[in-house]
Design a protein that fits this description.
Largest sheet: 2 strands, antiparallel
Strand content: 15-25%
Number of strands: 6
Strand order of the largest sheet: 1-2
Helix content: 25-40%
Structural class: alpha+beta
Distance between the termini: 134 Å
Number of helices: 1
Shape: rod-shaped
């Protein structure tokens, strides 16, 4: 059995004297492609005629939900951008004060460095010189008693 499309035969034209008469054209109702519902297509039947027929729709995969991390990222993106914008605006307003602060910090670093130089360059005490020891004895009686004490220099 052959599945090749068979085209209908066209009748021979009629003659009327010297004039050739063709059979009238068969006007089939046509639908615009926009009017064809989903799942319906033009198909060619084995006898060669074209007609509309229902065709199986391809299976569409079920819609997957949006992952939670994507939602979170989408919600955080404008927040982070707004924070960066606010920080840059704040730095723009604070720039003169920050410049003055850095100059003050450099002055403090210079003061500390000068103090370190003085501490290193200062002569040390003579280790042979004796040091003074002070001892103190304090006595008191009771919680609110008067304290008495002696100081001994050695």
């Amino acid at each position: 059995m052959s599945y090749e499309p068979v085209h209908p035969t066209v009748p021979a034209p009629l003659r009327y004297g010297d004039a050739i008469l063709y059979p009238p054209a068969v006007v089939e109702p046509r639908m615009l492609p926009a009017e064809i519902p989903p799942g319906v297509q033009y198909v060619t039947l084995p006898d060669g005629t074209r007609t509309l027929a229902y065709t199986p729709l391809p299976e569409t995969p079920p819609a997957r939900p949006v992952p939670t991390w994507a939602k979170t990222t989408a919600l955080l993106a404008p927040t982070v951008g707004g924070g960066i914008a606010a920080a840059s605006a704040g730095l723009a307003y604070a720039a003169p004060g920050l410049i003055a602060l850095t100059e003050a910090l450099w002055a403090a670093v210079a003061l500390i460095a000068a103090g370190a130089v003085v501490a290193v360059a200062r002569p040390r005490r003579n280790a042979a010189r004796p040091t003074t020891h002070i001892t103190q004895h304090v006595t008191a009686t009771g919680l609110f008693g008067r304290a008495n004490g002696t100081i001994n220099h050695r």
